[in-house]
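Hi F.,

I've been meaning to write this up properly since the lab meeting, where we talked about keeping a consistent format for the predictions we share between groups. The idea is simple: the sequence comes first, exactly as it goes in, then the structure tokens exactly as they come out, then a line or two of notes. No screenshots and no reformatting. I'm using this chain as the first example so we have something concrete to point to.
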Amino acid sequence: MNRYNAYPHRIPGGLGFWAMIRLCRDSQPSPVMDTSEKPKVFGSKGEAAEECLKHMVAFMNGRTIRGEMFEVTEKPSQAARARAEKLFLGGGKTVEVERLEARA
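Output, unedited:
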């Protein structure tokens, strides 16, 4: 399941908020961790939401997405194009295919 999710979550007991993030590689959301390997606690819902946004943007911008860096530096030569057209437009080697009846 390639799904993303990010939301502030009220800590049980009303002591603040956690910034919960689920990335495509995770199965469940997990809180943003503090340096002491405990979930980082935010004083308001807005602060937690801002941290969610910051982490999601950093994740999206911090990795190469397939096809993102697609650039053609040089065009194929005329000879290569002619060979490809000959192959794919019927001028290349042909293979005969024989179909056999399925046995019941």
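Notes:
The radius of gyration is 27 Å.
Residues 5-61 form one domain.

If this format works for you, I'll send the rest the same way.

G.
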